[in-house]
Write a sequence for this structure.
């Protein structure tokens, strides 16, 4: 139970409970709405890892040998419902996803390359500055990728290298993008 502040002037108070947020996450997950396909042309050119077999050859040389310089696709999806917990200082989220990589052949056929399970713990701290509502998302420490054998499974040391690169990419591009897209928004 939360005690509402005494209102001395007109104001709008909006409260969303963990139950509402987790129910929405359950509905999106059950409906299959937590899926995203990423192709090589969707990534920024500055992103440290391009979706081409040439770039992925660092992690799986046999991929580059078998399919020289072919475009790839990444299919992201939730393995489990995301979980949200509310704390006085921040919102905490747990994401459980998988990333399946495919090589796109010239005839548009997709060949499975590998599958990674990606679990992430995210913290968002809401902020109000002047009349702007904002927030700062950040990744909490812990393993990000768990290897899962695919058609061309990656050895565990290579998964660690890929995990390090993914974390770097998220810090370099993901968090700034989330901050620019989500925040700041004017507060009436």
């Amino acid at each position: 139970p939360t005690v509402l502040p005494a209102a001395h002037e007109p104001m709008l108070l909006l409260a969303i409970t963990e139950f509402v947020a987790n129910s929405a996450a359950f509905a999106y997950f059950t409906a299959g709405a937590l899926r995203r396909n990423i192709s090589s042309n969707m990534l920024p050119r500055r992103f440290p890892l391009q979706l081409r077999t040439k770039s992925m050859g660092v992690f799986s040389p046999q991929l580059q040998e078998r399919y020289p310089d072919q475009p790839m696709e990444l299919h992201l999806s939730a393995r489990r419902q995301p979980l949200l917990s509310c704390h006085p200082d921040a919102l905490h989220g747990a994401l459980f996803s998988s990333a399946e990589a495919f090589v796109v052949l010239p005839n548009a056929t997709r060949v499975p390359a590998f599958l990674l399970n990606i679990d992430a713990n995210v913290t968002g701290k809401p902020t109000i500055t002047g009349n702007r509502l904002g927030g700062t998302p950040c990744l909490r420490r812990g393993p990000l990728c768990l290897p899962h054998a695919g058609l061309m499974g990656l050895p565990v040391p290579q998964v660690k290298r890929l995990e390090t690169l993914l974390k770097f990419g998220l810090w370099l591009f993901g968090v700034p993008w989330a901050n620019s897209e989500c925040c700041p928004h004017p507060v009436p």
Q: What stands out?
A: Residues 182-188 have pLDDT under 50 and may be disordered.
